[in-house]
Amino acid sequence: MSVLDKVIAAVTPPESAETRIKAREEARRTAMSGDWLDQILTHHEQIDAAFDRAEAATDAGERTTALKELGALLTGHSMAEEAVVYPQLSHDHKGPMGMSYQEQQAAKVQVALLEELDPLSQDWTDKLDHLRGAVAHHIYEEEGSRFLKLHEELPPDVQARMTQRYREETKRYSTGLA
């Protein structure tokens, strides 16, 4: 972990696991089966599971494979969100939209940097842990506020269009997301 990573982690402590669980539960209660928010929550759960697999991997081959899967999930998911959901944030939520783009770009860079490290090294483990914390915080922000506000504010016709478009973008960018 770089010095900058350590400083950022020290001044922005992550929310607790309990707080993240409560936010996801609230988002699940808000989402309607199959709508754009439901699809996103499913992807977030898949991303969490991919982090679990990467952390549990014990040899270099397993870690490399798990990282490739995680990277594909993160990239496909972020492309779908950026194409469908973030433009809706641009209307009245420009601050959260800009932050969302930055966070997702940073995650892509961190995955690329992880690919350059020895998968059995402590640096790899530390960077994966840092990436997981950053992604968990990003997901919390989306599930706890950013996307819930959109879900309540947008009219049904826009929500229906987003649901269809999100499904299309998911298919376009990632076969690993269901």
TrEMBL record:
Domain Hemerythrin-like as annotated: residue spans: 38-144
Pfam families the UniProt entry points to: Hemerythrin
InterPro entries linked to this entry: Hemerythrin-like (IPR012312)
UniProt-listed PANTHER family: HHE DOMAIN PROTEIN (AFU_ORTHOLOGUE AFUA_4G00730)
Protein name, entry field: Hemerythrin-like domain-containing protein
